[in-house]
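so ive been stuck on this for like two days lol. basically i have the seq below and the ligand is 3-isopropylmalic acid, smiles is in there too. i just want the complex predicted, nothing fancy, no docking runs or whatever. if the output looks off dont worry ill sanity check it later, just need somthing to start from for the group meeting slides
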Amino acid sequence: ATSSSKRYNITLLPGDGIGPEVVSVAKNVLTLAGSQQGIEFEFREMPVGGAALDLVGVPLPDETLSVAKQSDAILLGAIGGYKWDNNEKHLKPETGLLQLRAGLGVFANLRPATVLPQLVDSSTLKKEVAEGVDLMVVRELTGGIYFGQPRGFGKNEKGEEIGFNTEVYATYEIDRIARVAFETARKRRGKLCSVDKANVLEASMLWRKRVTMMASHYPDVELTHMYVDNAAMQLIRDPKQFDTIVTNNIFGDILSDEASMLTGSIGMLPSACLGESGPGLFEPIHGSAPDIAGQDKANPLATVLSVAMLLRYGLQEENAARTIENAVLETLNKGFRTGDIFSTGKKLLGCKEIGEEVMKSVGSQE
Amino acid sequence: ATSSSKRYNITLLPGDGIGPEVVSVAKNVLTLAGSQQGIEFEFREMPVGGAALDLVGVPLPDETLSVAKQSDAILLGAIGGYKWDNNEKHLKPETGLLQLRAGLGVFANLRPATVLPQLVDSSTLKKEVAEGVDLMVVRELTGGIYFGQPRGFGKNEKGEEIGFNTEVYATYEIDRIARVAFETARKRRGKLCSVDKANVLEASMLWRKRVTMMASHYPDVELTHMYVDNAAMQLIRDPKQFDTIVTNNIFGDILSDEASMLTGSIGMLPSACLGESGPGLFEPIHGSAPDIAGQDKANPLATVLSVAMLLRYGLQEENAARTIENAVLETLNKGFRTGDIFSTGKKLLGCKEIGEEVMKSVGSQE
Ligand SMILES: CC(C)[C@H](C(=O)O)[C@@H](O)C(=O)O
Ligand SMILES: CC(C)[C@H](C(=O)O)[C@@H](O)C(=O)O
């Protein structure tokens, strides 16, 4: 490294199931792509989710959060597994993830759903419907019904047990996610579709009002509105109509997973969680896949592409991000596949092996 | 009609857009299929939605609700249109629909999504994924975030505007929809999948607990649970894995529309809204399609099939229901299609004409 070299602190949160395997591959790719640009990384690995429960009895140890907060970016593998499925709420791996998002203040979840030409056949959609799909869901991540108060259990007038949650949004929460969405759309194809249920919900009416107000600052972005039920249909009828979608936490949870599955290759999809300031959190959208954990079968490419998002959105290192994305495409072009995206005539590789192919391709771009 | 003939009072709510056209066809089919079984109908047509707004200034006039309540079953066309889109909430056509559901106490919404062999090519899914799909979404319709209190607008501690809604379920609400769902699954293939977000929401935790308890009364039904985000994915990945799905109001809104669109022919899909006692409400799942209203282009078959559901679930007249369903299939088998389900080689008909073909086919089954 030269004296002009940059250094970043990266927190690695491998988590559960296949998390450690895919994070290990992605870490190596990040290190190599960085070194080509004179970037050095210092990694610190911390427990989260089930791994943290087993180790220290809570799904997000204080130290994990404080190390993460002090770093420049965070790479998460996956969390959860059968073992902890029946835990009480505060001892669920998922609770650790929600605490991490809230603790980091990462209110904007960027989830691309892209159908790569190499993988168009993986989609359950007809080829002509799937090919060319390239959309981005911008999901609000630290508000709404996931965090709204009051919540809990109680009794109604008749003395019957009730369970309740509050869907609530304040103007500042809507404004800041709208801003991220407009900025995102501006850098893409300039189309933003805001999804809500403003024909029924007050929280959605305020959402629509504020998003509409924000549009005046982005005259170059075309804003449309769609009800969530219609959006769930339109994603299947004609996904290519979408460029950028912005929506609340719970609708975003549902629609971004629906959009991912349209591509047929969720083992390929990364995500970024960003806040106002402070480090971003980057993770593959797939789960911890406990059934194939430790068998070197997992597809690490979603995590590798998450590292590309980490470089682009977390560290503003566009060159290294591009290098990694190109390497993934080249690896696919050479016919290498993991089991989840395998088709006849292609070359089946394990998690480590396909990682090595990506490394070769990164290396060859020097 | 013989002295043993039965008489039913049916409330017709044609509503807006294509509503009147499709209801008119379905009414004729109902009359004919009924007469073959010695059933007579008395129809009373009442305004709802935009039509009621234009006529008397409210989306659900008191008289419409009271006539509906006193009848044996209600057939609704569709509501809404651009004209009323910017109305205040209490003057929206949608509000009339919600008031109607609440007023009738129809808490169970049955929404089949079936891919007919004749129309498998209409789906945007690959043929092997779409063919044979035959699922039923049982959606809770009068509770949850649609009706939960408190709701509205206010200020937070910092004085910022907020919009809020309450997702709330009481045990009795969950129990009664669970019962309908288990009964439905029992009459189908004996598989029930309950969809919730119990890893995050207290309202869903209570939902899961009560549905699980209800399962002990239905040992012949296989109960599974799925998170809503995963359900949105699985519907696309492999919709045939589902038989009956039960879920809350808002998740049901989203997932039932997603499931409908999988079939590619939402102009064919009926629905039923049922209460504990009192008349059921039957309607096609499609909207009012204002752009083709009054042009005799609408597909009336979803409304015709809604009339079959009205006979089966509303009046327990299984024979007449079957006659109508067979007539619709025969009409398709003869190659007749409206524009929305047209493909080359088929015969394109208008709304009235395809209605007449269904009538012929009903007649020929006498
Ligand atoms: C695990 C769960 C709490 C989480 C969510 O609902 O946000 C997950 O589904 C996701 O989308 O990241
Ligand atoms: C029009 C709207 C209020 C309604 C709903 O959300 O229930 C509709 O989408 C439906 O599914 O019947």
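Chain B touches chain A through 62 residues (CB under 8 Å). The mean pLDDT of chain B is 97.
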